[in-house]
Design goal:
The protein has 406 residues and is of the alpha/beta class. The protein has three domains: 111 residues, Fumarate Reductase Iron-sulfur Protein, Chain B, domain 2 (Orthogonal Bundle); 152 residues, Rossmann fold (3-Layer(aba) Sandwich); 133 residues, Rossmann fold. Helices cover 42% and strands 9% of the residues. The strands form two sheets. The chain has a five-stranded parallel β-sheet with strand order 1-3-2-4-5. Strands 7-6-8-9 form a four-stranded parallel β-sheet, sandwiched between helices. Helix 9 crosses helix 19 and helix 17 packs across helix 18. The protein is globular, with a radius of gyration of 21 Å. The chain starts with 27 loop residues before the first helix and ends with a helix. The structure holds iron/sulfur cluster (2 copies). The site of one iron/sulfur cluster has 15 residues, from helix 5 and helix 6.
Length: 406
Amino acid sequence: MGTASHNIATQSKTLPCEMTLENLTEFPEGRRVLTCIQCGTCAGTCPYGELMQYPPRRIIGMLRAGELEKVFTSDSLLECVACYACTAKCPRGIDLTGVLLPLIKEQVLLHLPVMPAELQKALENKLRYGNPMGESPRKRAAWVKTAGVPVRILSEDPRPAEVLWYVECYTSYHPRGQDNARATARLLHALGIDFAILGNEEKCAGECGRLSWERGLYNTLMEYNMLVFAKYQFKMIVTSCPHAYDAFRYRYPIVGFNYRISPVPPFFAQYLPQLKSILKRNLNYTVTYHDSCCLGRHNNLYEEPRALLRAIPGVKLVEMVHNRVNTICCGGGGGGMWLDTYYKTKGIERLSERRVKEAIATGADVLAVACPYEVSRFEDALKVLGHEKKMIVRDITELLAEAIEV
Ligand code: SF4
Ligand code: SF4
């Protein structure tokens, strides 16, 4: 067993209806794991497959052989960035990323002699402060003052709203994430949408905690967020974070979540006719779009972000070699956001660097993204590779807002 410091969030027990390695076969998606034909597609498609001692195919082989304990004592799953590539390509339809890997990772975490410090800190911060950066919860809505448009905070004005906008951590706190927040607020405002945010009451949805092995932390955040939602009236939730969308859509229903939910790009894509009438400014950019793993591979939302980009005057869209279902992860999922130092010490190439090399090869001058993790990851990768003068990174909302501003 690992040291006590690993177990930062065991206050919350496993939920009664939750899948575990012990009750795996009581659930259809758990029984499906046993239908694996050992084809190796998962290992072949995994961006770090060649580095993993136990890629998914081998994990299932060990499960069948009754030797899972050996998998638990290898740190090879630290390379899994929860990118859904193996899930998307598995011919048996096994949800490796959503079902099997988090259960195994949880055990790997408990067996690690030393947890990577960056990841440990991020998980502790989520528990203590409700965000991985360790920022004060009281500053979560500080960006609102610079939004340039009114942003209603429900604790101050609890009238029912059409849209509860779930901003999430990086969009609330990271300086470049706040650019996305301000752009989204301006777009919502320009479209005349009645929206409000939770402000300081909002906490991380927790998905990357779950996919990076902390079930207890995840359940704690899930219980908290459900109590906050219940305080207010709204018709739907729109979120800037594809990871939060995944959490709400796939995991929160086990605790009764049944609100309508949409990530930002498909939500704005519904308003394309109205948007086109206000997107007046010619941006004159050649843009390549990076498909986020959660939006694209996991939720089939490939075309909505592209439709938004095509609606911007003067935007020419070009594709990277790996696009849509074949996208290469930015490396931030499943805890990867807080494992860059670990990867560096192991001499492992960061996926964000692999990805920006592809983006540069398109000749585009803008790398467009739709997940708050990606802006900082790709901007950093461009700097490390010396390409920061050749390409800028922009969230789609930033490009849309730029096109409506005169
Ligand atoms: S891709 Fe699916 S069926 Fe093939 S080895 Fe991996 S888990 Fe098994
Ligand atoms: S989720 Fe992605 S990184 Fe993790 S094992 Fe599957 S393909 Fe590899």
